[in-house]
Design goal:
The chain is α/β, with parallel strands linked by helices and 281 residues long. It is built from seven helices and twelve strands. The mean pLDDT is 91.
């Protein structure tokens, strides 16, 4: 790994700078912007996670498939991602500067960069088939990938036209505080989009489903599957109301996913939303 003084976007604008608290390293095309103590904790966790194979995880084993994402036939999971892409493309302005949180294996960053946007994609996960290093499977790599703690997004030196929470917001700690940080990073008329907001009618059953997977992970590795154990995990109507009070417009997602969730979690009346916020100043 090679140490860096800063991280620039594809247009040469400085995004992040190395400081006494944060080191910057370049690792197989991915920048790592981490506090040294958290880096040690994260690397230990990621070593365990990469060896934990669970059917519910989003892993692509065939490198050829990456370029096709999210348009994978006969996959309800990827159908919802394709719908997410369509939603985002309808609400993004041309040549936007985008920060994507939860970038994962890079499918959204790849699509948006092909559309002419300047994309910075961040995530905790680093693996070649599960995280940011998957960028190396794409033909074009015209976006910036940064392995960092989402709570440190206030370290960015620039503002953005669009911030995207690409699913998984339930696994971040202090969602209201994180959203307030995100709002402060927007340009005038900038937007925040949140995808994958699953509101469960029976949050106890949904939590039970998650806890079973978490217990399996804990039994093997002695720690929680969650990077942030104090994260929300499951959303309820109270969280929907919280987002509405923070001036997000809640938009119902594809109802087909509801049937898939029912089958997977044995729950009734689950609802999925996408949320959008627009800064006025």
């Amino acid at each position: 790994m090679k140490e860096q003084a800063d991280i620039k976007n594809i247009n040469g604008k400085v995004l992040l700078e190395a400081t006494a608290d944060f080191n910057i390293e370049l690792d197989e095309g991915v920048y790592r912007y981490l506090r040294p103590d958290f880096k040690l904790e994260l690397d230990t966790y990621l070593s365990s996670f990469e060896s934990f194979d669970h059917p519910g995880f989003l892993k692509i084993a065939d490198p050829i498939k990456f370029e096709e994402l999210p348009f994978i036939k006969n996959s309800p999971t990827w159908k919802t991602r394709a719908d997410d892409l369509d939603f985002i493309q309808k609400h993004i302005n041309p040549q936007s500067e985008v920060l994507e949180m939860g970038g994962g294996i890079g499918w959204l960053a790849n699509r948006l960069s092909k559309d002419g946007h300047s994309v910075t994609s961040i995530d905790y996960f680093l693996g070649m088939h599960t995280g940011l290093k998957a960028r190396n499977f794409y033909k074009d790599k015209n976006w910036i990938s940064v392995n960092m703690d989402v709570k440190d997004i206030d370290q960015f030196k620039t503002k953005f036209d669009l911030l995207i929470f690409n699913r998984g917001i339930t696994y971040y700690a202090d969602i209201p505080g994180l959203i307030e940080k995100a709002k402060a990073m927007l340009k005038q008329w900038g937007k925040i989009i949140i995808t994958g907001l699953n509101i469960y009618a029976d949050d106890a059953k949904a939590m039970q489903h998650f806890d079973a997977i978490d217990k399996e992970f804990q039994d093997r590795f002695g720690r929680s599957l969650l990077i942030k154990p104090d994260s929300k995990k499951v959303l309820t109507d109270a969280d929907k109301e919280m987002l509405e009070q923070m001036d997000f417009r809640m938009i119902s997602a594809d109802p087909l996913l509801k049937e898939w969730l029912k089958k997977d979690l044995f729950l009734d009346k689950n609802r999925e939303y996408r949320a959008i916020y627009t800064a006025r100043s």
